[in-house]
């Protein structure tokens, strides 16, 4: 028997392809173990090749896992569009089991056979929900635009039940699954064990048991964060991307893919329906897809907005919090910073105390008696003297959650505050406990960061305080206004749905927010007009090149060399280049180049011509620091 030769790529690696041989015939996408130096690695078979001129070694073993041709195709797109190796892109996916019916699509299922297994029943829809649902039935992809509390979830559930009846599976994406036990509960009511929650924090054992359930057909719905998009569900009929505006759908490491955009592509390739949904849709989705609007919320209650200035817990805030506490009502307070303070600075020479490895201020965490860099996690003892001029004491700036709690607790006697941020809510258990204390009325104020804007609804709250929007408005980001406005709507919308509620917004730009409070769609329309005029996405394609190097002059040189090469591409505009806003992280000097083109094709072409190990390309970036 003659040998077969295969080109393979190592999984989770950016190494170039290698050639090995085996007596047996292997299918494209098969996963094998290959010897590499003194160890062995998993690799995926790309294709069979002619016997090469050089000596090859033998493949060690063939696993019982295989990537489908669709997975291989989508991974190829991801690697080319988001500038990663194919090995890195395919490693996002979980392979199918060899011989699993999955590969011979479509799956032959008798819908009646699993009706007994799956408790799939349609929820009752209101007239308004029914109307939106009927519209969605006829669309391959659409954006469901409905305020919090308008009943989007029942529509999702009904669409998933449809899929079950057709013998098809569904994926339901949420930005942060660990923050959404409420959604899990609701899905379980309808789908029981046919739905499984998938996220990166699952144990190996749990993952294996879910994969087994998928293989034997007992699990037909996967709900989870962005990694849920890559589970091996056969005969996929529907992908739902809830809270589609959320930036956590964009991966911040290679491959820097956007799960919402990959979901749309996947839907096209697999013939699955794609439904995006949000109360504050992204400009790009609103612009690109058919919009189905879901009227008003079930119960419309009045919200009274108060605009105040300042940048700390000041007396108007304390007065309102105190009044609400005395009335035995619950409140919520949002601010974007963790710890006690974001910065320490010297009043005499104006120097901010910086991380020695990054060009960012050290945040003060009094509880841990240290200063911490939120970029590289370097910590040091709290200091009170300026290293530049010796002046003491240092001033602290931009209050964080911990400091806000201290200020409020000392001003309002007896108030119980629940800290709700990444420092305090570290596990699902802690989340459950914190929410439990709040729901039972044991705590009176829920105080936290962006976490508050995700997943939960706090219907009983009668006072919301939103701080720090000016900081978001001031970010060097073409989406700064969208980010600030969306945050205001998300937080105000999640609270105070059962009763009339007050919302305090602390900002120096009240006029901007006031003009859109009645309807987010008014904001979208104005913002889209602005983006079109300023030539930003969705009316242009953007890419950011990041260069980071221990040697500053080397980083500068790579930047200039890359700019020189890019200048040859006439249809690509170099918007700017130079030091990144955060000039140094973990002792590496950071430079960036921002590029723009009317269409993505010429931009991709230019970037592929300069792509190299020394630069990192972020296509459709959402982060500019
Ligand atoms: Zn000083
Ligand atoms: Zn640092």
Element layout with pairings:
Blueprint: E1 4-10, E2 18-22, E3 30-36, E4 39-49, E5 57-58, E6 61-66, H1 69-81, H2 86-90, E7 96-97, H3 111-115, H4 127-137, E8 141-145, H5 152-165, E9 169-173, H6 181-191, E10 195-198, H7 204-215, E11 221-224, E12 236-242, H8 259-270, E13 273-278, H9 283-288, E14 291-293, E15 303-308, H10 315-326, E16 331-334, E17 341-345, E18 363-365, E19 370-372, E20 379-381, E21 395-399, H11 401-411, E22 417-420, H12 428-439, E23 445-448, E24 463-466, H13 469-473, H14 480-494, E25 501-506, H15 510-514, H16 520-534, E26 541-549, H17 552-566, E27 573-585, E28 588-597, H18 600-610, E29 616-619
The protein binds zinc ion (2 copies).
Tell me what the structure shows:
By secondary structure, the protein is of the alpha/beta class. The chain contains 18 helices and 29 strands. The strands form six sheets. The protein has a seven-stranded mixed β-sheet, with no helix packed on it. A seven-stranded parallel β-sheet has the order 10-11-9-12-13-8-14, with helices on both faces. Strands 15-25-24-16-23-22 form a six-stranded parallel β-sheet, sandwiched between helices. Helix 4 (127-137) crosses helix 5 (152-165) and helix 14 runs antiparallel to helix 16. The protein starts with a strand and ends in a 6-residue tail after the last strand. Residues 101-117 have low confidence and may be disordered.
């Amino acid at each position: 028997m003659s040998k077969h030769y295969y080109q393979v790529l190592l999984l989770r690696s950016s190494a170039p392809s290698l050639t090995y041989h085996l007596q047996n015939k292997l299918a494209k996408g098969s996963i094998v173990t290959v010897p590499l130096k003194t160890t062995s690695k998993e690799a995926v078979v790309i294709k069979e090749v002619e016997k090469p001129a050089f000596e090859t070694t033998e493949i060690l073993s063939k696993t019982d896992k295989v990537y489908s041709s669709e997975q291989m195709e989508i991974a190829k797109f991801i690697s080319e569009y988001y500038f990663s190796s194919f090995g890195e892109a395919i490693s996002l996916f979980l392979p199918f089991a060899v011989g699993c019916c999955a590969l011979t699509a479509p799956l032959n299922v008798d819908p009646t056979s699993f009706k007994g297994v799956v408790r799939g029943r349609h929820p009752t829809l209101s007239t308004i929900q029914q109307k939106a649902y009927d519209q969605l039935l006829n669309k391959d992809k659409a954006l469901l635009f409905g305020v919090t509390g308008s009943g989007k979830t029942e529509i999702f559930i009904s669409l998933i039940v449809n899929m079950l009846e057709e013998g098809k599976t569904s994926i339901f994406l949420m930005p942060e699954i660990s923050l959404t036990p409420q959604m899990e509960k609701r899905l379980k009511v309808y789908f029981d064990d046919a739905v499984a929650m998938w996220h990166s924090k699952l144990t190996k054992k749990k993952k294996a048991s879910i994969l087994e359930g998928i293989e034997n057909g007992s699990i037909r719905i996967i709900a989870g964060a962005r990694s849920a998009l890559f589970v091996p569900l056969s005969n996929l009929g529907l992908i739902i991307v809830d809270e589609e505006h959320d930036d956590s759908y964009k991966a911040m490491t290679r491959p820097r893919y956007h799960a919402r955009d990959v979901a749309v592509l996947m839907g096209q390739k697999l013939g699955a329906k794609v439904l995006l949904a949000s109360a504050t849709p992204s400009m790009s989705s609103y612009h690109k897809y058919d919009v189905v609007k879901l009227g008003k919320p079930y119960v419309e209650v009045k919200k009274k907005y108060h605009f105040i200035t300042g940048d700390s817990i000041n007396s108007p805030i304390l007065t309102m919090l105190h009044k609400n506490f005395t009335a035995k009502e619950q409140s919520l307070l949002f601010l974007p910073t963790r710890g006690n303070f974001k910065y320490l600075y010297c009043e005499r020479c104006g120097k901010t105390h910086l991380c020695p490895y990054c060009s960012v201020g050290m945040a003060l965490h009094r509880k841990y008696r240290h200063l911490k860099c939120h970029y590289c996690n370097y910590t040091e003892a709290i200091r009170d003297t300026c290293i530049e001029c010796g002046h003491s004491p240092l001033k602290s700036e931009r209050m964080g959650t911990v400091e806000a709690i201290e200020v409020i607790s000392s001003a309002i006697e007896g108030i119980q505050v629940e800290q709700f941020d990444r420092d305090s809510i570290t596990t699902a258990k802690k989340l459950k406990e914190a929410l439990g204390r709040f729901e039972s009325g044991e705590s009176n104020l829920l105080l936290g960061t962006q976490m508050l804007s995700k997943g939960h609804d706090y219907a009983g709250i009668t006072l919301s305080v939103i701080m720090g929007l000016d900081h978001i408005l001031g970010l060097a980001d073409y989406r700064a206004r969208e980010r600030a406005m969306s945050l205001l709507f998300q937080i105000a919308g999640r609270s105070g749905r059962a009763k009339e509620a007050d919302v305090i917004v602390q900002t120096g730009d009240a006029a901007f927010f006031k003009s859109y409070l009645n309807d987010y769609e008014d904001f979208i329309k104005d913002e889209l007009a602005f983006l079109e005029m300023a030539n930003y996405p969705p009316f242009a394609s953007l890419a950011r090149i990041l260069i980071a190097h221990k040697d500053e002059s080397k980083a500068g040189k790579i930047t200039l060399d890359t700019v020189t090469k890019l200048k040859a591409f006439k249809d690509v505009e170099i918007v700017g280049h130079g030091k990144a806003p955060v000039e140094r992280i973990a002792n590496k000097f950071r430079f960036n180049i921002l590029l723009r083109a009317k269409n993505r094709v010429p931009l991709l072409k230019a970037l592929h011509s300069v792509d190299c190990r020394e630069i990192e390309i972020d296509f459709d970036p959402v982060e500019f620091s």
